Amino acid sequence: MSKKNVKKVVLAYSGGLDTSVILKWLQETYRCEVVTFTADLGQGEELEPARRKAEMFGVKQIFIDDLREEFVRDFVFPMFRANAVYEGVYLLGTSIARPLIAKRQIEIAEEVGADAVAHGATGKGNDQVRFELSYYALKPDVTVIAPWREWELTSRTALLDFAERHQIPIAKDKRGEAPFSVDANLLHSSSEGKILEEPGQEADDIVYQRTISPMAAPDRVTEISIDFKEGDAVALNGEALSPATLLTRLNALGKENGIGRLDLVENRFVGMKSRGIYETPGGTILHVAHRAMESITLDRGVAHLKDELMPRYAELIYNGFWFAPERRMLQAAIDASQAHVTGRVRLKLYKGNVIVTGRESPHSLYSMKYVTFEDDQGAYDQVDAKGFIKLNALRLRLGAMAGRKGGAL
What we know:
This protein has three domains: 3-67 and 96-178, HUPs (Rossmann fold), CATH 3.40.50; 183-298 and 340-360, Alpha-Beta Complex (Argininosuccinate synthetase, chain A, domain 2); 371-401, no CATH class. The strands form three sheets. The protein has a five-stranded parallel beta sheet with strand order 3-2-1-4-5, sandwiched between helices. Strands 10-9-8-13-14 form a five-stranded antiparallel beta sheet. A four-stranded antiparallel beta sheet has the order 6-7-12-11, with no helix packed on it. It is 39% helix and 19% strand. A hairpin with a 5-residue loop joins strand 11 and strand 12. The protein is of the alpha/beta class.
């Protein structure tokens, strides 16, 4: 679709410098009506300034939607049932937010009869992929406008000059070279760029948004319990809570105990490495608790298969394939595994650590009768182990007898 054919576009709008410049640029370049959409995902910022800025630009249709419950219930919790971590450590806080934003953006485009959707992701990052794969999965014929891949504003200075020319308000901390960029939602906060681009240099304390330093955390233990039902957390310290409220409470507990900090150099989908500082206080607690609940409720084969599938599942989310059929297929298998992941986990939080102290479930597979070191009254015949070991050793013995030291390569 040419610029002339775009009459109305829905812009994912934060109200910050980049998307404010994009809003004005769209009006000038495409000569089209711009509809703004701002998602409240629990980023902790006042969203009304975004509305006022949009009104200043003459925007008539402004959407500011509270998506916190949907975000945790339908995106974060399904991901946590899989214990998903990217490259062994990253809990995917930014990655999991993008498909929901894209989903609502497409819904709004349908509601208002828009010709196109637009986002503010750069041409170097992962978010452009995540947004656009989601757009195309939900509306195959959608027109996508990605200004960072079209315009000539190739630097922060150019953006600031454009903003000044068009009297776009610039926050004081954005005037000049911003020290780093921040993306936040109810699950996490991520910081990257500028002062963080040198991976050998320790991040300054000003980078951290959601946690205090583990070294500055209180010299006392915080004891909590989390109840699970079919793989999802449903109560904290015995109090039933909605998904978003529960995660909010865990965030507060994690923050004050210095939990959830991560300094990571990751491999972006587009091919480059990048360094980011991630803070996932409540999510880190939830991840540890869920694995503890699974430890007594999942069959060994199921648990090990889940761990084999998890890296692939995490990679799909990281790369933007939330709405892909293979992610849905894996989700079905994961959700089937959670039927009996119900019970309570007790934990201690202390100076950056999440320590499991107990777990119990009406569906527990743990049997004192079988594991006891005392007399098991014939529940387990230890003599059976001899045949079990010899059968498993057969191929090793055959290899050794054939003169192949260390096995049968």
